[in-house]
Design goal:
alpha/beta; TIM Barrel; 13 helices; eight-stranded parallel barrel; binds (3S,4R)-3-hydroxy-2-oxopiperidin-4-yl beta-D-xylopyranoside
């Protein structure tokens, strides 16, 4: 599709019809509305009152952008630090929001000391005791955990489906089962989620990820490993089409295996999208709408979370800054917390009747 048709397509759906600020979620949501929320930078909740207010106005569910990762909670082998995590959970509870846990077993952001883990037995002990400590501490208060984050290889190939990590190095793919079973043992009521990205791409990579993901889930199910939901991160490439039929049948297949679907980290990576702002914002919104609609065609996601709420605070420029020097605009509110067409898309989707 050419760029102009793409933009007009978005206009045609009403995706860019919101000029006036949108009413926030402050009004009671219909009982069947899908909870919307954002990843949170805990320090900014106290440092930036506008950010804090936007989060309160729009969100029903939160997740920590850091704060609940290994380096934050377990910076050295003999210490756990819960200050920021506790603070975020208290904020969520004070404001009647759910907090999701992110994440227990991931290849990324591991504290340096974990490099000294030297054997299978030691890896097992560390992973299990971490989960016991962290999931145990928040038992009954955090009801959904990204138990395993990004388990699939960058480009999964037969015989090499699982990504290299400290856990994979020592335990092979068994770390996935161990993490899921341990979390279920510590809190039998918690929703167990595996979270992944790039499954929406219309490329060999996208197809390989979807296949590897289904193979992994089928294998876990066949061995009765507890697993309740799949998190689709949704770090969408603004310049890349969504494989709508591939995504819809992938979600349908997961649903047929009894799994719930969550959208966990939505944003639209816009570094290769042309300006000006209004057109760019329309393209970002249209891309997200296509993604959400393709999922919605097979299953109603239980939540829609964006990886940040305002362009003021986004991880996107760390990896995908723009060559033209313009700031990235991947999120539902602009850097002054004004709603963009993407917020309208999310509100329309989450509030549409099931
Ligand atoms: C990112 C955070 O946004 C950054 O601030 C941090 O430096 C690195 O991690 N997929 C995930 C998230 O599951 O945990 C990542 O978050 C973004 C990609």
């Amino acid at each position: 599709m050419r760029r102009r048709e793409f933009v007009l397509g978005a206009l045609g759906t009403g995706a860019v019809s919101c000029i006036a600020p949108l009413p926030a979620f402050a009004a009671p949501l219909a009982p069947n509305a899908i909870p919307y929320g954002t990843a949170i930078r805990v320090d900014m909740l106290s440092e930036d009152p506008l950010y804090r207010q936007a989060v309160i106005d729009y969100c029903q569910v939160l997740v920590a952008e850091g704060a609940f990762k290994w380096p934050d909670l377990h910076p050295s082998r003999d210490s756990f630090v819960f200050d920021q995590a506790d603070q975020l959970l208290a904020f969520a509870e004070e404001n009647g929001m759910a907090l999701r846990g992110h994440t227990l077993a991931w290849y990324g952001a591991m504290p340096e000391w974990t490099e000294t883990i030297a054997s299978r037995e030691e890896a097992e002990t560390e992973l299990v005791s971490y989960i016991e400590t962290v999931v145990g501490r928040y038992k009954g208060r955090i009801k959904s955990w990204d138990v395993v984050n990004e388990p699939l290889a960058e480009f999964p190939k037969p015989g090499a489906l699982i990504r290299e990590s400290i856990w994979q190095r020592h335990l092979g793919a068994d770390y996935i089962e161990l993490a899921l079973r341990t979390t279920a043992r510590v809190d039998p009521d918690v929703q167990l989620v595996i979270n992944e990205y790039d499954v929406e791409q219309p490329t060999d990579l996208g197809r390989a990820k979807r296949k590897a993901f289904l193979d992994l889930v089928r294998d876990l199910k066949a061995r009765d490993v507890p697993l309740h939901a799949i998190g689709l991160q949704g770090h969408l490439r603004g310049d890349m089409e969504i494989d709508t039929s591939g995504l819809t049948s992938f979600v349908a297949e997961l649903k047929s295996m009894g799994l719930a679907i969550l959208v966990t980290e939505l944003d639209v990576i816009d570094n290769l999208l042309p300006g000006p702002e209004a057109e760019l914002d329309a393209m970002v919104a249209a891309r997200a709408k296509t993604f959400l609609d393709a999922i919605g065609a097979a299953a109603r996601p239980e939540t829609v979370i964006t990886w940040g709420i305002s362009d003021r605070y986004t991880w996107v420029p760390i990896w995908f800054s723009r060559d033209d020097g313009m700031p990235n605009r991947p999120l539902p509110l602009d850097s002054d917390f004004k709603p963009k067409p993407l917020m309208q898309v999310i509100q329309d989707f989450t509030r549409s009747p099931s």
